[in-house]
Design goal:
The chain is about 40% helix and about 20% strand. It has ten helices and eight strands. Bound molecules: adenosine-5'-diphosphate and magnesium ion.
Length: about 250
């Protein structure tokens, strides 16, 4: 199962993905997280002991160029770059979770992450998973990857949304784009929800009820501030995480 997450910056994508990862692990599954945010933060969020030691795939320029098949001056890409070995070579494992960091988009093509996008797309489409293997993709806002069809190969897209009009607007835009690229399962997840009124505001604004509502929990933001892994807070929101997974699977 491949699950991607999107939503406006700061809504809680990385937090919720980390909690999902931990729950899936506790349920006995094998979990690979792919951090595709240009300012990656998943390693800290899941408590990888030495995040500085992780080599982001984006830093391996030559390798990326080879894998995406882009040759100097040519706008075309190979149809089938090999990516299998990337998974085993550039993965770290800690706390029973596997993590791969895609890394930052840099200079050159002025913000075009074409090579990274192509590699990620291949990885997502070529990755064959058994029912107990999960690939979780954490991204930035996600609109960019959706626009390029990078994540068209995922089974589920979760769109995190907080009770704010701007967040709802982004979520609706994400849903539309996701459906356009053919992602069959697109669901909203409410986060930083304080009361019933917040839940109703979200349901009304989105036109459909989110599959889970996560409470605004100071223990979560405090853990982040102290640099503590958020997965230590799973017990506080385990019902929500389990409910989300049940709705999804
Ligand atoms: N349910 C929640 N309750 C309290 N704080 C939260 C919650 N979810 C996320 N946060 C906090 O919000 C901030 C942004 O979360 P993060 O997961 O990094 O967002 P994103 O990945 O969408 O940019 C972090 O400080 C995080 O601890
Ligand atoms: Mg994030």
């Amino acid at each position: 199962m491949k699950i991607a997450i999107s939503g406006k910056g700061g809504v809680g994508k990385t937090t919720i993905m980390a909690l999902i990862a931990e729950q899936l692990k506790r349920d006995g599954n094998e979990v690979l997280i792919i951090d595709a945010d240009p300012s990656p933060h998943m390693a800290q969020t899941i408590g990888v002991k030495d995040p500085g030691a992780i080599v982001p795939i984006a830093e391996m320029k030559t390798l990326l160029q080879e894998r995406s098949g882009k040759t100097e001056g040519s706008p075309f890409y190979n149809i089938n770059p090999q990516v299998d070995d990337l998974l085993s070579r550039y993965m770290v494992e800690d706390n029973g979770l596997k993590l791969m960091v895609l890394g930052a988009i840099e200079g050159g093509n002025k913000g075009c992450a074409c090579a990274e996008s192509t590699v990620l797309k291949r990885m997502l489409t070529k990755l064959l998973l058994s029912p107990t293997q999960f690939a979780l993709l954490d991204m930035e806002a996600g609109v960019e990857h959706l626009g390029r069809g990078t994540i068209a190969g995922v089974d589920h897209l979760l769109t995190v949304v907080i009770p704010a009009k701007s967040s709802i607007r982004t979520a609706l835009k994400v849903k539309k784009l996701a459906e356009e690229v053919g992602i069959k399962s697109v669901n909203f997840v409410g986060n930083k929800v304080i009361d019933k009124e917040d839940e109703e505001f979200l349901t009304e604004g989105l036109g459909v009820k989110p599959i889970a509502f996560f409470p605004d929990n100071p223990a979560i933001s405090k853990a982040e501030r102290k640099g503590q892994p958020v997965i230590g807070q799973l017990d506080a929101v385990q019902d929500q995480v389990k409910g989300l997974l049940k709705a999804l699977l």
